[in-house]
């Protein structure tokens, strides 16, 4: 049977009336959703679990999305499992289950489900992450004892859970436990069947294979018991060996070669548990049938051929296509943070941590609610307007383990693979050695090296959840003019019909910019900051105006002639209050004709100064003079600017400038930021000379209005240069 994908299940359960039409308990329910309004899902192994609220009760529904190609006989197995749990009500750590062969309808086809009452509790791994914040030996010993008692109670009834691990043990608020996920459970009535579960590799003996009997839990239970006993005595072990989302302390490689295991070395040096550690080491080295004898302290022989163990599936965050194929699977993803954002919603906060280019649908880490608060506490950052962001996270090398889900983003044609971060501490920050070790052990078929964000700095998108890539370096002015004319030609050719409604003036009239009064320029005067239209030549507009020409024969708009600046004269005449500077101008007409003229300069006007509504970006426009241009400074920024090319100033990246010849970052120790600068309201503009700046929803955008002029945009999270 080919099961639906995880995403297909997510889409189906949004309408429980149709999806659970064959289940009278669930068909009137509502799926629990996250802050992105997608059904919450927990997935691992072969099944995904959804929460459905119905009639004042909460249900957990397991839907199978993977098959190993064998007949798992779930209908028969779960019939016996349900009877066992119902008939042993004293086993209060088990939850009654109901298997339905046609429990859910997806794309018109029926598929099996397992329904059980939703129970409150934290997965043991998540509970330990919280516990490690304020270690309490008594609490962890209580949980340890509860697990040991549950395993003993099952063994007394010739039963075993079959997959004891951090994700299948829930810790209740009163420190009692639940055991969940019974696919691999062994019962006396199932003894004639084969095993359909080999358990989590970081909890199982290397030789477990297809063994199926009442002793399935012996090794895993000892692994958990020894780990919790060690943590109760040395909580720092959690930071050193745990907190990966994949284990408590031990990993499969520790079982395969305990003599070279750093963890075994640490535990052997702890007097209270050294004897238990020695026995567990012997159990790792011996054959599967001798595990019980080794743990009892009896003499056993090591296996002759050693052990071969499976390890984690590790992928580079850049391998988005591969990660999409791993939907529903637990994997480890390694990469470099390129961008972060915190989105405040009425239901709570959402944090997005991008490890690539969001426009391509690259991998993203997502966190919700309290986890966002914990991340922000660890990496605090606020704009002057009070918006939260994660400071100093961009550029970090990280690893995360979890189940891949796919998100349909509005900003990419590809589905975005993502993993939900359950706790802030489960985001592993990697040093050079850790990063190298993980990348060397990446899935061999798809190994790649995560890109450094400095090699592809993020830039602006108007309404992004993560930044697009930097625009390519602009072509020379002549090439841009040719490209624009070609684009205009493609736009206008063969277009006829009624003219479109002319554009309406903006609702808010831009405030006039005070300037020194000037006389209109004569035909031979150079451009001096006031707009001028050459005679008998239409001006260029880019982008093209919304009104198409009345006839396809109408000539294409032509660029205005550009003034080519020449060197200033070395001599000048000084007068009180003004100066005289000689310029040369080459005016381009139908044929190139050079005309030189001198002009009398008025007093240079003062720069126009303002700041964004958030007060994070401060700008000034100098319309004329030797400092002519635009400068904007970001008080706080999370983007990574281009390489500083020798700039040693620690504030490099906050200042961006625009002149007639270029737009880019500059190295300067001072800043324009000052609280007294006037606010440029959202949607309004400031114009001085040939330069115009607009206050947009996420920053300031400035442009040079002259033909071929450059432009930039700057926000707290990104920038754009052209």
TrEMBL record:
Residues 448-466 have a biased composition (Polar residues). Residues 442-480, 494-576 are annotated as: Disordered. It comes from the Bacteria. Residues 502-513, 541-562 have a biased composition (Pro residues). This is Protein kinase domain-containing protein.
């Amino acid at each position: 049977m080919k099961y639906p994908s995880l995403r297909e299940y997510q889409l189906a359960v949004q309408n429980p009336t149709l999806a659970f039409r064959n289940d009278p308990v669930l068909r009137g329910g509502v799926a629990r959703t996250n802050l992105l309004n997608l059904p919450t899902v927990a997935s691992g192994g072969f099944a995904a679990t959804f929460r459905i609220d119905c009639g004042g009760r909460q249900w957990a529904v397991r839907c199978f999305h993977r098959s190993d190609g064998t007949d798992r006989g779930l209908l028969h197995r779960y019939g016996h499992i349900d009877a066992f749990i119902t008939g042993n009500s004293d086993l209060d750590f088990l939850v009654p289950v109901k298997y339905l062969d046609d429990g859910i309808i997806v794309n018109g086809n029926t598929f099996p489900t397992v329904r059980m009452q939703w129970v409150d509790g934290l997965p043991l791994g998540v509970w330990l992450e919280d516990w490690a914040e304020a270690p309490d030996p008594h609490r962890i010993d209580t949980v340890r004892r509860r697990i040991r008692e549950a395993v003993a109670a099952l063994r007394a009834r010739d039963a075993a859970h079959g997959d004891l691990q951090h994700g299948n043990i829930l810790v209740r608020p009163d420190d009692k436990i639940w055991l969940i996920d019974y696919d691999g459970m062994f019962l006396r009535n199932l003894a004639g069947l084969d095993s359909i579960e080999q358990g989590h590799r970081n909890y199982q003996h290397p030789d477990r294979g297809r063994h199926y009997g009442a002793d399935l839990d012996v090794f895993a239970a000892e692994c958990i018991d020894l780990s919790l006993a060690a943590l109760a005595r040395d909580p720092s072990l959690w930071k050193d060996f745990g907190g990966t989302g994949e284990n408590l302390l031990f990993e499969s490689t520790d079982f395969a070669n305990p003599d070279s295991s750093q963890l075994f070395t640490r535990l052997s040096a702890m007097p209270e548990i050294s004897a238990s550690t020695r026995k567990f080491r012997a159990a790792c080295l011996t054959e599967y049938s001798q595990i019980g004898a080794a743990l009892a302290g009896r003499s056993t022989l090591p296996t002759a051929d050693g052990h071969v163990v499976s390890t984690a599936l590790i992928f580079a965050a850049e391998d988005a296509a591969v990660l999409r194929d791993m939907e529903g699977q637990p994997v480890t993803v390694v990469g470099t943070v390129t961008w972060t954002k915190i989105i405040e919603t009425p239901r709570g906060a959402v944090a997005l941590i991008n490890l690539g280019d969001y426009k391509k649908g690259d991998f993203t880490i997502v966190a919700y609610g309290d986890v966002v608060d914990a991340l922000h506490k660890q990496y605090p950052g606020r704009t002057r307007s009070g918006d939260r962001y994660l400071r100093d996270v961009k550029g970090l090398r990280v690893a995360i383990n979890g189940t891949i889900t796919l998100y349909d983003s509005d900003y990419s044609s590809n589905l975005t693979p993502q993993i939900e971060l359950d706790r802030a501490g489960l985001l592993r920050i990697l040093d050079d050695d850790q990063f190298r070790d993980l990348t060397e052990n990446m899935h061999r078929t798809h190994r790649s090296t995560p890109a450094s964000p400095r090699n592809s700095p993020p830039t602006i998108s108007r309404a992004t959840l993560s930044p697009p890539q930097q625009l390519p370096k602009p072509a020379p002015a002549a090439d841009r003019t040719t490209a624009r004319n070609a684009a205009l030609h493609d736009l206008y050719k063969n277009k006829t019909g009624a003219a479109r409604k002319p554009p309406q003036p903006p609702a808010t009239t831009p405030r006039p910019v005070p300037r020194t009064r000037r006389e209109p320029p004569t035909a031979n005067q150079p451009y001096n900051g006031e707009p001028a239209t050459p005679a008998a030549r239409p001006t260029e507009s880019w982008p093209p105006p919304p009104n198409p020409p009345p006839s396809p024969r109408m000539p294409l708009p032509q660029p205005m002639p550009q003034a080519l600046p020449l060197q200033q004269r070395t001599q000048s005449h000084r007068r009180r209050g003004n100066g005289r500077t000689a310029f040369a101008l080459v005016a381009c007409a139908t044929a190139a004709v050079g005309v030189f003229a001198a002009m009398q300069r008025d007093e240079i006007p003062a720069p126009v100064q303002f700041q964004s509504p958030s007060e994070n970006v401060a700008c000034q426009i100098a319309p004329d003079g030797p400092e002519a241009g635009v400068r904007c400074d970001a008080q706080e920024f999370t983007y990574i600017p281009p390489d500083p090319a020798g700039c040693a100033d620690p504030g490099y990246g906050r200042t961006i400038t625009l002149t007639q010849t270029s737009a880019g970052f500059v190295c300067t120790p001072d800043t324009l930021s000052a609280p007294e600068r006037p606010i440029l309201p959202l949607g309004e503009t400031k114009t001085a000379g040939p330069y115009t700046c607009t206050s947009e929803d996420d920053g300031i955008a400035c442009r040079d209005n002259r033909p071929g002029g450059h432009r930039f945009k700057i926000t707290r999270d990104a920038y754009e240069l052209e």
